[in-house]
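seq as requested:
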Amino acid sequence: MGAQLRVYKRRIQAVTATKKITKAMEMIAASRIVKAQRKVAASMPYATELTRAVTAVATGSNTNHPLTTEAESPARAAVLLLTSDRGLAGGYSSNAIKAAERLRERLAAEGKEVDTYIVGRKGVAYYGFRERKVSESWTGFTDSPEYSDAKKIAEPLIESIQKDTAEGGVDELHIVFTEFVSMMTQNAVDGRMLPLSLDQVAEESTEKGEILPLFDFEPSAEDVLDALLPRYVESRIYNALLQAAASEHAARRRAMKSATDNAGDLIKSLSRLANAARQAEITQEISEIVGGAGALADASAGSDK
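struct tokens:
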């Protein structure tokens, strides 16, 4: 019985240590969410105005720029998938991967080949385990991305969409990331970055009561688009990286809180079992003492006869 009690005590000590770790990770993740939210909010005005400027240039000119003009028969698309570098975040990365798989199937059904670009070790590991081809990947910054990271990611994507498909280029550029809605809600979403859907942007501006500005272009609208569109792609990727980082921290906080609560419940359960074992041990000891005393009494009574 004493051995069983020692087992329970060791398990309680181990779970208590784990609970301290998960609680610390929960608090760290919670503190990082606030910082990530601020970065998301700070990036939104720039991304919004840049999109409006690009749209204004494209709609206010007759130029057919390859980055704003739909291909007649799109045959190839690039998909950028954002996952995490670390685990312990619940279903954060798996949900993004599932969204990318659905997008891939949809594009394949449209007759398009897909080139995959991945951010985060979880996505790289998923594709590597299944021996799937990845055009390029980036790791090491998913929980705290900088604009330089977005610029580094955007370079090969822009280069790819500027090439002809016969030379290995793509007609469309899509992105899959986890959108931060609130502390409790994060949704894996996909969206097309390029070619830019001018009708959709114009419709969204109309719904918001905004009027697209009118500009004169120097030296030409095409040159302006050449300069603006790389910045547009970088800003979209940067905003997605920031939202993904905030979502990752929120998912990790939620997962660690659940782990902490489960550890607390397990400690209570083990404590009850340990108390029951201790009580049984005490009862057994009392029974042995009473039994021994009775045996001595019987022995004494026999000797007196």
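The two ends are 39 Å apart (CA to CA).
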